[in-house]
Design a protein that fits this description.
279 residues; Isoprenoid_synthase_dom_sf; Farnesyl Diphosphate Synthase; 14 helices; Squalene/phytoene synthase family protein; globular; 0% strand; Squ/phyt_synthse; 2 domains; mainly alpha
Length: 279
């Protein structure tokens, strides 16, 4: 993408998922820009849902997106990403409800508190990330395709990333660790900001459950975009590695910014799987 306004949003997506720079080389150049625009759009919604501390400000931004998407098919959109997306015939084949579902889900979870346990945490995150996965699969593959694997991967990968913000989000209403995990390891909110044996064990337990879920999701062998496939494989490797590390928080950060031959291989596998679903 050469347009500066659009590229700035793509750069924000790549800052969160640096491994996707490798995946770009495995996406068909004929459709690469529109696929990247969708990924950047997803990141914009995620940033609005989680990155704005004031719920009223986040709600206003999400309401703007709801209005933008409701009329984009007719107007072509106002936002740089919307313009790229709705310039494609692909966008007009996606049900309007799929475009709006992530925005509505993001608005619904703005004031959620910390989940009671791991299962509740997954359910709470699934509403937003599952709707993004459904939109992405419809965009990439069209028609009625399974979305369970994509939904799980989007949800669990987000929860892996959320752990890397543990110290920053310790004062937020919604913590990256569920209440039952905190209680089991005798942790308070304040104690999440500093390394300790208890925090390390809590992180290892959380990462272990996330890794198990990601492994199971990838084994479903359902359609995944190249970007989603790489995200899932990266999140799985990150969660597994950090769960086994002596200092899981440091390892989590190290692995999330790591690229190299393993990333290229994961990207190749993800692209190959996506291509097999495209015929």
């Amino acid at each position: 993408m050469t347009d500066g306004a659009t590229q700035s949003f793509v750069d924000k997506w790549l800052a969160v998922q640096p491994q996707q720079r490798v995946a770009l080389g495995f996406v068909d150049p004929a459709v690469r820009d529109e696929h990247v625009a969708l990924a950047a759009f997803e990141q914009e919604l995620i940033s609005s849902a989680y990155g704005i501390r004031e719920p009223q400000v986040a709600a206003a931004k999400l309401q703007w997106w709801a209005e933008e998407l409701s009329g984009a098919a007719a107007s072509g959109g106002r936002h740089p990403l919307t313009k790229v997306l709705f310039a494609s015939e692909r966008a007009r084949k996606v049900d309007t409800r799929l475009w709006l579902a992530p925005v509505l889900a993001a608005m619904a979870q703005l004031e959620q508190g910390t989940a009671s346990d791991f299962a509740a945490q997954v359910v709470a995150a699934r509403n937003l990330h599952g709707s993004l996965a459904a939109l992405e699969n419809a965009w990439w593959f069209g028609g009625q395709v399974p979305v369970e694997a994509a939904t799980r991967i989007a949800t669990l990968s987000h929860l892996v990333f959320a752990l890397s913000r543990l110290e920053l989000d310790a004062d937020h209403e919604r913590l990256p660790l569920p209440m039952s995990r905190l209680a089991r390891h005798g942790l308070s909110r304040a104690q999440l900001k500093d390394d300790s044996p208890a925090r390390r064990e809590a992180l290892k337990a959380q990462l272990g459950e996330l890794a198990d879920g990601l492994r199971d999701a990838l084994s479903l062998n359902e359609p995944l975009s190249t970007f989603r496939g790489l995200e899932g494989r990266t999140a799985l490797a990150t969660a597994r590695g950090a769960a086994k590390a002596a200092e899981p928080f440091a390892e989590l950060h190290r692995r999330q910014s790591l690229t190299g031959p393993a990333t290229a291989f994961r990207a190749w596998r993800a692209a190959r799987q996506a291509a097999s679903r495209l015929g």
